[in-house]
Amino acid sequence: MVRLLFSMALLALPAAARSPLHTWTDKDGVLHVSDVPPPRARSASRKMAAEPQVNVPPARRGERWWEKRSDAPPDEIDRAAVLYKIPAELVRAVIWAESAGDAAAISRAGAIGLMQLMPRTAGDMYVEDPVDPAQNIMGGTRYIRWLANQFKGDMLLTLAAYNAGPEAVRKYGGVPPFDETRQYVRRVVAYYQQLRAQTKRVVAEAAK
Predict the structure, then answer these.
(1) Pairing state between β 22-25 and 31-34
(2) DSSP H or E segment with residue 25
(3) What Å distances lie between residue 207 and 116, 200, 202, CA to CA?
(4) pLDDT tens digits for 125-177?
(5) What angle do CA 141, 69, 137 make, to 5 degrees?
(6) Helices (H), strands (E): how many in the chain?
(7) b/e map 145-156, b = 16+ CB within 10 Å
(8) Which run of H or E residues covers position 24?
(9) Within its chain, how far is the Cα of 51 from the centroid?
(10) In contact, 133 and 113? CB cutoff 8 Å
């Protein structure tokens, strides 16, 4: 499912805008997201990782964001993830990047709730009360699914569209040259990587 949803491609922005975000997989199977192209970028860009990953410093216990208090009900995240075929770890990563788990969060632009849905987006995703955690999670996950469909499952483009809007991604032919969006994409991918690693450890321990 993860391979289907997130086929990773080398992204290019217009040269006049700024250097593009590059993605490549190293010999250890770790996906990198950077402004700096990798050595032999042409050949490296063809390699696909089994699971999207990114290098992040290991967090010490007590500092891991997913262990902090959150208004996001885990059952609702899992339910939405299964319904819309989105990895639950990605939904959690978006929630933390958007609101740090605060269901009452409202941005200066008017985005609401755990997944920071704009009122129009909430309506389009059939969310009647965007402050309600369950509805917000369901609507936000549905929106991720909708964007993933628009961008052929490319995770970087999907996340960029979640932050900057699908029109901006189409306009620039890739991740828009906005510092906020580029940092957002890196942050969510890093959170996703941390959660995937945590899931693997739990599964490995349970199998012992």
Answers:
(1) antiparallel
(2) strand 22-25
(3) 37, 11, 9
(4) 999 999 999 999 999 999 999 999 999 999 999 999 999 999 999 999 999 99
(5) 15
(6) 9, 2
(7) bbbbeebebbbb
(8) strand 22-25
(9) 13
(10) yes
Say if CB 78 and CB 88 are below 8 A apart: yes
- Tokens 């699908």 -> residue: 166
- Count other Cβ atoms within 10 Å, centred on residue 81: 21
Whether pTM exceeds 0.90: no
**For 71-77, which contacts have Cβ atoms below 8 Å and span 24 or more sequence positions?**
71/101, 71/102, 71/103, 71/104, 71/114, 71/133, 72/101, 72/103, 72/114, 72/133, 72/137, 73/133, 73/134, 73/137, 76/133, 76/134, 76/137, 76/138, 77/137, 77/141
Q: Are 143 and 86 in contact (CB under 8 A)?
A: no
Give catalytic residue positions.
98
Give yes or no for a contact between 162 and 144, defined as CB atoms under 8 angstroms apart.
Answer: yes
